Every structure is written in C-alpha cells, then in structure tokens.
Amino acid sequence: MNPAQGGWLILLTLALAMVLGIVHLPETWPQWLGWLRPAWVSLVIFYWVMELPHRIGLIAAWVIGLFVDVLQADPLGLNGALLAAITYVAWRFYERLRMYSVLQQGVVVFVLVLASELLRMLVQDMIFNRGVGWGPLLPALVSLLLWPFVAIALSRLRLQFHVA
Amino acid sequence: MRGSGSIKALFVRESGAGYLLAGLLLVSVIFVSLESTTRLLEPLRGVVATAATPLVLVAEIPYLLSQKVENVVASQASLVQQTAELERRVLELSQVSQQFLALKMENERLRELLGSRARLPAEVLVAELVGVVPAPNTHQVIIDKGRDSRVQVGQAVIDEKGLFGQVVEVDAFTSRILLISDADHAVPVQVNRNGVRSIAGGTGEMERLQLEKVSVTADIREGDLLETSGLGGRFPRGYPVGYVETVLIEPTSPFAVVTVRPLAALDRSRHVLVVFSRPEDTDGGVFQEGDPEQASDEAASEAEASAAADLNSSIEAAAELSEVEQ
Fold this sequence. Notes:
Order of helices and strands of chain B: HHHHHEEEEEEEEEEEEHH
CATH topology of the domain at 122-311 in chain B: Thrombin, subunit H
Helix content of chain A: over 70%
Number of strands of chain B: 12
Shape of chain A: globular
Strand order of the largest sheet of chain B: 1-2-5-4-3-12
Number of helices of chain B: 7
Strand content of chain B: 15-25%
Largest sheet of chain A: none
Radius of gyration of chain A: 16 Å
Distance between the termini of chain B: 86 Å
Oligomer: heterodimer
Structural class of chain A: mainly alpha
Order of helices and strands of chain A: HHHHHHH
Low-confidence stretches of chain B: 1-6, 280-300, 302-326
Number of strands of chain A: 0
CATH class of the domain at 122-311 in chain B: Mainly Beta
Largest interface: A-B, 46 and 47 residues
CATH architecture of the domain at 122-311 in chain B: Beta Barrel
Mean pLDDT of chain A: 85
Mean pLDDT of chain B: 77
C-alpha cells in the first residue's frame, strides 16, 4: 500500500478548518456568535493524529500553527506551541483514545481546548493587554459538543478515500 | 516512559518526541517574545501570510454571498429610495467641494502671505475589505492592498466619514488594519473648535472611544468634533475622528471621563482609503512653543481645518490668522 495515501484529504480538511476558524459571518447574524467559534483546527488535528499517528508529526503541527497565527493575528509561534502540545497528547495516548467512547474523547478534547484557550488568553493579555475573563470556556464547550459530528464526518471521509 | 521490560521495546520511537516537543515549545517562546519586542520575524510572517491569502479569500465568501442575496431580494421601492438618497448626497457633496476649492485657494494665498509652505493634498489608495480577524476581543480587518501597492506599516486608513484605523502588517497582496476602536489603539486628536489636544483610545467597543487623562478644566464639550492633530507623526493632521458624546466629571477624580462616538462606520464600511501622507502633514511631535513660525503654521492649519469642516466664511479664517500675527 502506498504509505502516503490520501495526504491531500488531511491537508484539505485542515485548510477547511482554518477557513472555518476565520470565516466572516454575515452582518445580519448576531455578533455574539463570534464568541462561540470552536477550535476547528485543534479538533481536526486531534482526530487525524489519533487515527493516523504516523501521518502528522510535531513539526508539521507546529508549522500549521504558524498559518493559524497569521490568520488569527496572534503572535507568531503561539498556535504552533498549542497545536504541537495537542498533537503530542493525541499521539502519546492514541491507543487509549481510540478505545474511548466518543463522549470520553470529547471530554479530552474539552480539556485540551480549554487549556490551550486559557494559555492563548494569558499570552494575549501579556502582550496586547486584552484582559482575562471567562471567554475560553465557550470555545471549549462548543468544541465538546461538536466533537462527535467532526469525528463521524472525518471517519466517513477517511474510509471513503482510504486514507491510511 | 510508560511500562517496563519487553513492552517498552515496541515503543522505542517515542523516546525522542518529548524532547522535540520541548524544543518546539522553546522555539515558540522565543518567537513570541521576539515578536512582542522586535520586528525581526516580520519577513517570516510575510511569507506565511502570502501563502495563507487564498484561505482568507475563501473565508470571505459566505459574507459576500449574503450581501449578494441581500441585493437580489431588495425590493424595488427600497432601491428607488436608495438612489434618491445617493443623488441627494452627490448634490450636497458637489456643493461642498465647490466651496472647498475656493477655500483651498484662499488658504494657499494666506499661507504664501505668511511665508509658510503650501500643503500638498495627500494621495489615497482605495482598498476593499477582504477579511476580518475573528477574535472578538480585538478589532482588526484585512484589506486587499499590500506591498504590491506600496502600502507601508503605520499608514492611516480612513473611510468616507472619518478615521478608520492604521496599517499594522503588510503582506504581498493584503494588509492588516488595526481599527481605532481596538483596546490597544490610541490616536492623538484635537478639538476642532479650539485646538485642545488629547488622545483618543479605543475601548474594545465599536461605537465608543475614550479620551485619556483629560483634566476636569479642559474646554471639551458634548458635541465637539475631534480631528487628528498630526502629533506623534503617525496620522496626518485634520481627519475627523468623532464627536464627543458625553463628558462626565466626577468630584473625586482629577480626570474627566470623555466618551467619543467615532464617525467612521467601523463595523460596516467595505471600502476604505489608505492615506499616503506627505512628511509635512505631520509634525513628528517636535512642536516648540516659542517658535513663531511654527505657531502661525499651526494656527493656519487649524483655520484651514475648521474652514473645510464647517465651511465657515473665509473672512473668519483670515481674521484668525491676522490675530495670530499680532
């Protein structure tokens, strides 16, 4: 079997996640939706590393983080560190995570996203004085709620296109 | 690592990952601290941003589609009303610009009389918004002009009504604009009526700025028009920023709380102008009080600004100038 099969799908889903992370909502939609934006890239990376731990390495995750930094106007390197840490956790425990139920996986995702959003908030507060608050809780909760759907959708795609 | 004995041998490849992660985290910390203090990483950022431009454009599609749909389903009545409104505005503005030309000529003549330099009109570049930075706690947008159009970091950006923001990052084909309402932004302003100087800081709310450290005795009233003062060397002088909304004086505080409503449609404008300011339009903060030429220069520009904004009669401007001369 071709060891690099389906790499385009992984890249495509990651690109889609980045787009979803910055998509410009129409004016007529309420503004508070902006606070509910889940950590799309973290979700997608977590899935791929858990299912195919040999396909995404730490350095790749860090480089993807650079793109997220630029798209979200964060200081360069911040998202790289967060995504590399998530990748490490998913990769270190992938056998265990695959055995978990979707809900248990969701809880792990919740903890990871909450931790990374908290760290992001602290760094942003340190550099831009943006203040601290309860903001990070919302993306983590929404990520938890969305995890089952993301996991099912990506599984379908993975099987459909024989990504290995 | 986990486990022991024979199991461990299966996971030999894991051994280096912890060090790699630690290394990457260290690089990240170095990057973040470099970025927060220096501009060494700007080239790298530019390269990544250029590569990521397609993603930004794709992310804007839903918004553009919603605008299209709005246009398609707009009723004929509302379109007719919109056209009438626009025609009325064109008439109004052409009348204003006719007077503006005359006033400008007059002002140039007066400046010649005073022996100070004539002010050249600033060049502008029309740009379109192609994206917004999604974080709800910062106000930044992305425009479709970048290094290819000679945009530079620090340039002022205005929309049709007033000051919009400033360029904070330039990539190959796009630039990032920090809006004046961002909590991290501040702009030196002066009251159009009497030239009282202050600094208008963003609050993180689109509809509100706040003047910083205004003493309770400062002559700032509700309804005053604030314009950029040109001090600080970033923004060209004389662009309207906003109207003073409330002036709150608390007996216990040495400072008045002055809130300002920005004129620019910060959350609605799709087309903005990037201003290529001339060096003589800004003062660079080297204003000396004892220097008579500088003082009259200042007064002249003040007179010009107020004349252009309020269309006062030109006699008043001349009177103000002669007052300064005496």
